Amino acid sequence: MTNYARVPHEQIAAAWEAIAVGPYHNVARARAAQEWLWAGQNQRAGERIVDLMSNPDLDAFPPPLDQVAQVYRTATSNEAGWQLLWHTWSERVLAGKSFAHVMAMVPVAARDRAELFATLQRASELAGDDVDDQLAMIGAARQYGLTAWADGALEPLVQRVGTRDLHILAGEIADAESRFGDALGHYEAAFDAPGPPVARSVVAAELRHMFDDCTQLALQSRGSAHTDAVTRAKHWADRGRELDLGDATIDRDLGELLLRDGDRTEAWRYLSSQIDRDPYSSAGYVAVATVYAKLGRLAEAQPFRHQAVLVDQTNPTLRLQEAQELLALGHTAQAKAELHDIVARHWHSTYDEIVANAKALLASQH
Fold first, then answer.
1. What is the pLDDT of residue 5?
2. Contact by Cβ (8 Å): 101, 120
3. 3-state SS of the chain: helix, strand, coil percent to 5?
4. Torsional class of 222: left (φ above 0), alpha (ψ -120 to 50), beta (otherwise)
5. Angle at 265 between CA 264 and CA 267, to 5 degrees
6. pLDDT for res 4
7. Cα dihedral 317→322→327→333 (10° resolution)
8. Tens of pLDDT, residues 143-188
9. Over the stretch 55-72, which tens digit does the pLDDT of each residue have?
10. For 272-285, how does the pLDDT look when each residue is reduced to its tens digit (9 = 90+)?
11. CB 8 within 8 A of CB 44
């Protein structure tokens, strides 16, 4: 009915009042007050809000309290009156046992930190062992800036219930706060938690999270803590291989981490995995060359860069990268020969910018 602009607001308000029973008792009364306001009957709108706020039906759905406040303030211009109504509503709702009504108070209560704490504390009490309700309460606390309080409520819940979803949530929050050790612990617990089958893409994403947290811990630590982080990184990289998740970047990044540690044998075991899986693709050779080059080891990168060029004859980008590295190593003649080859050959228009860069680099060598 509210979709018909030609229907008078008075009739719409009367219709809402007629259906203000059962689960929509509160919502319908709030909508009726809104319609009376739009009809220009401010006094009646204010009276409807007073009745709603003074006599809440805690067995029905809660009304949108932000809108209720706006209607009353617009209709009466009486802030003190609203504060009195809000106090009355708050006392009744917090003394009641409706989790939904308490949570509906949060957006308005958030304007006063002490009131927000009291509201969320009552919501937590009413949520009890209901995980979904607890998560809704924790989410609201984080939304309104009470992150420490929310974390304090989440951790015991995770320890007590320990579902996969709870561990994932706790891991994501810890990651966002750069608590990588806590995040890794939660992801590891989630990975092996019992539950229904999980899609391979989800498993791959979670394994990537764990590996990234291991890497962060390894880079930030020394001694036994560093060794432990590297060991865990290798463990999850190997689990990814066992599950055949196909994330070659994990092997590449682990190889780089091991190279930084000077463990060349173990580094090669991971770096070479993509080449072993598909020796006729340039991607594996490029990955290895890129890692060596990133660490400033261009001489060791060169054989792999050249092999990538030999495998993929249709991509001048690989040739330009090889030429740049040859120049950096002082092999000017080889580099210029490579650049001349790029400029002389006909490539797909996709590579026009690469060819232009090769010409500019070649010109700079005269």
1. 61
2. no
3. 75, 0, 25
4. beta
5. 60
6. 52
7. -100
8. 998 988 888 888 888 888 888 888 988 998 899 889 999 999 999 9
9. 999 999 999 999 999 999
10. 988 888 889 999 99
11. no
Give the residue from 268, 167, 255, 160 showing the smallest Cα distance to 209.
167
Reading the block at residue 265, the tokens are 């044998």
Look-up of token digits 């969320």? 120
Residues in the chain: 366
The one-letter amino acid at 138: I
Task: Please say whether the beta carbons of 189 and 167 come within 8 A.
Answer: yes
**pLDDT exceeds cutoff 80 at 244:** no
Q: Which residue has the tokens 């490539």?
A: 347
Give the Cα separation of 168 and 160 in Å (integer). 15
Residue type at 100? Answer: A
With tokens 């979904």, the residue in question is 132
Listing DSSP states for 184-242 in one string gives: HHHHHHHHT---S---HHHHHHHHHHHHHHHHHHHHH--HHHHHHHHHHHHHHHHHHHH
Task: Determine how many CB atoms are found less than 10 A away from the CB of residue 359.
Answer: 13
d(CA 307, CA 286): 9
Cα–Cα distances (Å) from 276 to 12, 268, 345, in that order, read: 72, 11, 31
